[in-house]
Automatic annotation (TrEMBL):
It holds the Pfam family MarR_2. It comes from Streptomyces olivochromogenes. The gene is ycgE. Signal peptide: none annotated. It comes from the Bacteria. PROSITE patterns: HTH_MARR_2. This is Putative HTH-type transcriptional regulator YcgE.
């Protein structure tokens, strides 16, 4: 079994600081990626949600909920993504009043080409970690993502 690389000790405060730095760098990276794809960050984020959903096509309402925007705002986002040839809207087979959002294959290829070198490097970085450490990372990312979502909901309700 792979043991993983020895890790230096760290305090929760150091880990929090490193996380904040990662988030800030990620935000700057998303701005750069969006610019290279001729999108804004919100539109790129929404396109990411469409990709994440895969064959389970999202409705406009699903997308608004995931992006924490109004249905009116998501209409504008979808209009821009459709004009830029990133998505198409398809009628929902179960409800004619709703539409589902599908990613255009050419757009998927463009986005993958831009992100793939980074994802390859991160995947290589995972080789320094044991399976147990990767399980901890996955658990931490998943739980922290949920906590962040819950906190955003609390902030919105307080407004």
């Amino acid at each position: 079994m792979q043991q993983g690389t020895p890790r230096p000790p760290a305090t929760p405060a150091q880990a929090l600081s490193a996380m904040d730095h990662l988030i800030a760098t990620g935000m700057i990276g998303q701005q750069e990626m969006a610019q290279r794809l001729n999108l804004n960050v919100t539109d790129l984020t929404c396109f990411g949600f469409v990709l994440e959903a895969g064959d389970t096509l999202l409705t406009a309402g699903d997308l608004a909920e995931r992006a924490h925007v109004t249905t009116g705002a998501v209409t504008g986002i979808l209009n821009r993504l459709e004009r830029a040839d990133y998505v198409t809207r398809r009628p929902d087979p179960d409800d004619r009043r709703r539409v589902r959002v599908a990613a255009n294959p050419d757009a998927v290829a463009r986005v993958k080409a831009l992100y793939e070198p980074h994802h390859t490097r991160v995947t290589e970085l995972f080789s320094d970690y044991s399976p147990a450490e990767i399980a901890v990372l996955y658990d931490w990312f998943t739980r922290t993502g949920r906590l962040m979502g819950e906190y955003l909901e609390e902030l919105r309700k307080g407004d």
